[in-house]
């Protein structure tokens, strides 16, 4: 199912227009706009990480095109929590207009602020909220605590005269969270009694049956593994997972070990979390990693980044003996993290490298050292039943996740026509408790590559894929512009094709013959001559080598 | 641990020299040589499939370098079973010498023969064996039935005066296999009593605790899913998995449906399996897929390739509506297969595409529709205990699998110094029941790309990785060879770098200035001028775009 591109009717008075800009049909770059009475509220503004068919790309941004001409109408950006897929694109949005107000919880905005400083964006406007109401333009906002794999996450209820919308952000329903801050089902119940007209709900784990185990179940496993270890322990996890790090610190402390943070983002985030009181560290526990090397091996736990096998992160560099800490015989490495699809080979290469160095590697596949941050099917059913929303828009997920989530809604009695499967750019109008699809925007991918934002296009990525699979052959000929006579060349150079350019010796006379024939026929046009070269060598390479490298002919007139 | 390259001593009389050429530290291209008394026996000769850091490569072969000068000494190649990672490189070996005798079971050699015909290799020499003894040169061979995810798999016992070696090939210990052909533990017991001096054992699942469930457990699930389906059913699996296909045929037949094979390798392999009696098809069950389209939707099961998301295979093409069979609302797709690490994104893209078309996708993550073909830790313990081998060489696996397997051996009481962790090219000499590492060969990767074997090198792959991540910028300048004056250019062309070459307008004057300065200083050498261009534009691109494309300068004299 894909909705054909169609411009919507102008927004009628009294209607709320909801447009997911990113995060539908993908895991990442979450962003939704809410428009009422000429004003726009944005919920989340995250990045998407590229897959292997988007080579060389650093980040993918939401397509800001639909709001670029409306920047002055934006009354605020609500950030539900501090993960990259919800806040990562904020600096790029603020490059367009730096005084758009940012609204979120304390930890979320502290992480956003660190990001704005790195991007040298100022001034900026922050509004810290926590479980309170806030009027932002025509939007009456209420913030509701939810539990997730980062502290201080919130859902947001958005009231306008058109009705009540509730966006969960990312969440799960751990009933025994480390910080005691559960997803506030009482508020969900209250909102349900008031009447939720549109429920935007996290779909990431909608196809996972049952319930996500409690984060607390990991603590004893960490404790046991650390207790058994005779030498150094290195734990890798996400640098924003404050509760996971808390459990590592607690287990280290219980076993008489100190903790050193490794990796720029781990150090930065944990400093922020500690300053704001989200991370509790017993006295005399933290130690700088440079000093940690003087401790006996059984007195230290390193807490590091790199759990996804990222080649430049600490753990990969350790596995390659390219880091000051060199793992060895008897060390224990714990990957206390998920394995994000697409990263398997990279992660297994790191595990193999560490094993080869003599380390014992503990990971998700051989011990309970990770639980997910997202509500599984069983938890989502609780939400549907307590809220009984009139309309449901599954968000945050690939298509199969959105479909699975819609089916759960239908299982609780919500009619199929009230569960909306949309994509990025699907425009949903809410009025009198009725949500209808009012149009479909054309939403693209905006690639960040180096310092370039949007300068690298899908056509460039297609070129990169061809170059990366097949390499290229360039053929340069200098011709006399009046006679068409070859002055110099053809010079043939290839990269990524063959060990030695002499493989092309056979085709050179063919190119010369083809160009002479063309010259004899009076062909002088550079483009036409280039095409003749392309065809001649292209056909030869396909037949002789059975390959299809990029052919780059260049005819220079002199 | 890696063993430094070291040439071995010449092979002493009465010693068996065992050299794994491929399959250690990797999953694939399994191949081991056994040398005794000047003669060489090869066990298996498979291919490895490339990972994402080997872009554009079709296949990776074992490095035949160590045997290239010894072709006349090879007395035979034993093929333990018909999977690509054990037979796929046979045609490439036979290109070196086509009359090397091939020894294997009926199905294995039938699959090899199909391959040799495709490669137009003839004549060739086949010896079909099954649970019998065979003298091949100085090697006294005994073939032992093992159970695996393809019928007719065998282990091979190799007796020489130096001792008894047993190579399992790939195997598991399903106690209720579909064809009743269990791994022959009685023979293992007998060999154990005789005394196994060296045990070469499949490590693929050594790090998986417990026991692989029986293939038989999948049948009822398939039956249930097909019974519930109101419309078409499409099952994807490996084209060599005869028993999986058998169960699909049985479930289809039980539900009054006919079966059509889709995909070239599926059709070919199942034709061979049926002809040789490995696949039993009830009368009037198979139907050509073109005719199947005339059947009612609830009367057909398509059995297809493409379970790993391979872009050119049937299932991917169906998901892209690029196949004669177009899945739609209410159809059921079953992925009755494993998910090989590295293929996750491709497979999930196919699942998403099919879901989007309205199909219900059943796969490993939501139903028991796959079991592994390899012995898990529990099964391996049985083998060690019944064989009590003197020396163990874990094979077929990444380093972590080899390590896990060695630890299992040690758990059953085999001393650590008798469990050998080797790599490709590790030379192991067996004499008087003692196995020792005698040397280490330098083993490379041999890439097949198009019609080229070995012509694409690691340097080419490095170029491809740079090109694929960053693209390239080529700069062509035509200069007067005597004065150094620029006659034409610089012409700058880039691919995969930026939407528009005009981004380089700023750097053109810098290049001209640099070349003029060089000309003024009397620099005439093409290479030196190229380096000046490379530095000038390279520095500019790094600073301006924060990227590192391949820079390809070319100075032409005219």
From TrEMBL, chains A, B:
Among Pfam families, the record links this protein to: Lactamase_B, RMMBL, RNase_J_b_CASP, RNase_J_C
User: For binding Zn(2+), which residues are annotated in this chain's numbering?
Assistant: 81, 83, 85-86, 148, 170, 396
Gene Ontology biological process terms, A to Z: rRNA processing
Q: Which cofactor does it need?
A: Zn(2+); Ca(2+)
Protein localization: Cytoplasm
Instruction: Give the residues the record marks as binding Ca(2+).
Output: 56, 58, 449
Q: Which GO terms describe its molecular function?
A: 5'-3' RNA exonuclease activity; RNA binding; RNA endonuclease activity; zinc ion binding
- What keywords appear on the UniProt entry? Calcium, Cytoplasm, Endonuclease, Exonuclease, Hydrolase, Metal-binding, Nuclease, RNA-binding, rRNA processing, Zinc
InterPro entries noted in UniProt: Metallo-B-lactamas, RibonucZ/Hydroxyglut_hydro, RMMBL, RNase_J, RNase_J_2, RNase_J_b_CASP, RNase_J_bac, RNase_J_C
Which family is annotated? Belongs to the metallo-beta-lactamase superfamily. RNA-metabolizing metallo-beta-lactamase-like family. Bacterial RNase J subfamily.
**Subunit structure of this entry?**
Homodimer, may be a subunit of the RNA degradosome.
* Function text: An RNase that has 5'-3' exonuclease and possibly endonuclease activity. Involved in maturation of rRNA and in some organisms also mRNA maturation and/or decay.
Q: Give the protein name, as stated in the record.
A: Ribonuclease J
């Amino acid at each position: 199912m894909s909705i054909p591109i169609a411009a919507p009717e102008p927004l009628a008075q009294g209607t709320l227009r909801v447009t997911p800009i990113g995060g539908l049909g993908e895991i990442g770059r979450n962003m939704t706009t809410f428009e009422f009475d000429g004003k726009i509220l944005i919920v989340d503004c995250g990045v998407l990480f590229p897959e292997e068919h988007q080579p060389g790309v650093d980040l993918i941004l939401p397509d800001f095109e639909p709001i670029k001409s409306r920047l002055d109408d934006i009354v605020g950006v609500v950030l539900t929590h501090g993960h990259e897929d919800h806040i990562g694109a904020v600096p790029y949005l603020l490059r367009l207009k730096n005084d758009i107000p940012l609204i979120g919880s304390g930890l979320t905005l502290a992480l956003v602020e660190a990001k704005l400083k790195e991007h040298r964006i100022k001034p900026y406007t922050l509004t810290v909220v926590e479980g309170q109401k806030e009027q932002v333009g025509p939007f009456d906002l209420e913030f509701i605590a939810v539990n997730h794999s980062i502290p201080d996450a919130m859902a947001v209820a958005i009231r306008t005269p058109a009705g009540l919308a509730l966006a969960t952000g990312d969440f799960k329903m751990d009933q025994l969270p480390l910080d005691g801050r559960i997803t506030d089902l009482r508020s969900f119940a209250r909102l349900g009694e008031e009447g939720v007209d549109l429920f935007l709900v996290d779909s990431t784990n909608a196809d996972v049956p049952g319930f996500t185990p409690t984060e607390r179940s990991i603590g004893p496993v960490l404790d046991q593994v650390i207790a058994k270890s005779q030498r150094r322990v290195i734990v890798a996890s996400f640098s924003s997972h404050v509760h996971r790090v808390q459990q590592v610190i607690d287990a280290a402390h219980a076993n008489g070990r100190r903790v050193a943070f490794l990796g720029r983002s781990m150090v930065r985030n944990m400093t922020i979390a500690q300053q704001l009181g989200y991370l509790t560290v017993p006295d005399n526990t933290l130690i700088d990693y440079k000093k940690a090397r003087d401790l006996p091996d059984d007195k230290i736990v390193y807490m590091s980044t790199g759990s996804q096998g990222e080649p430049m992160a600490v753990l990969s560099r350790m596995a390659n003996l390219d880091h000051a800490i060199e793992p060895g015989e008897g060390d224990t490495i714990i990957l206390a993290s998920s394995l994000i699809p697409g990263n398997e080979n990279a992660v297994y290469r790191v595990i193999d490298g560490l094993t080869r160095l003599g380390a014992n590697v503990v990971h998700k596949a051989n011990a309970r050292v990770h639980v997910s941050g997202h509500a599984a099917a069983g938890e989502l059913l609780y939400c549907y039943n307590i809220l009984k929303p009139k309309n449901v828009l599954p968000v945050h997920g690939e298509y199969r996740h959105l479909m699975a989530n819609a089916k759960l809604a239908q299982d609780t009695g919500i009619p199929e026509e009230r569960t909306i499967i949309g994509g990025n750019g699907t425009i949903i109008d809410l009025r009198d408790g009725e949500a209808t699809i009012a149009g479909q925007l054309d939403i693209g991918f905006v690639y960040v590559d180096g310092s370039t934002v949007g300068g690298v296009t899908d056509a460039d990525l297609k070129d990169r894929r061809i170059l990366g699979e097949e390499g290229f052959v360039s053929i340069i000929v200098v011709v006399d512009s009046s006679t068409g006579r070859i002055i110099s060349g053809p010079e043939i150079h290839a990269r990524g094709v063959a060990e030695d350019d002499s493989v092309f010796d056979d085709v050179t006379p063919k190119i010369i013959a083809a160009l002479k024939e063309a010259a004899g026929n009076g062909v002088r046009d550079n483009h036409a001559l280039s095409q003749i070269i392309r065809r001649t060598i292209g056909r030869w390479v396909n037949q002789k080598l059975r390959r299809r490298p990029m052919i780059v002919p260049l005819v220079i007139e002199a």
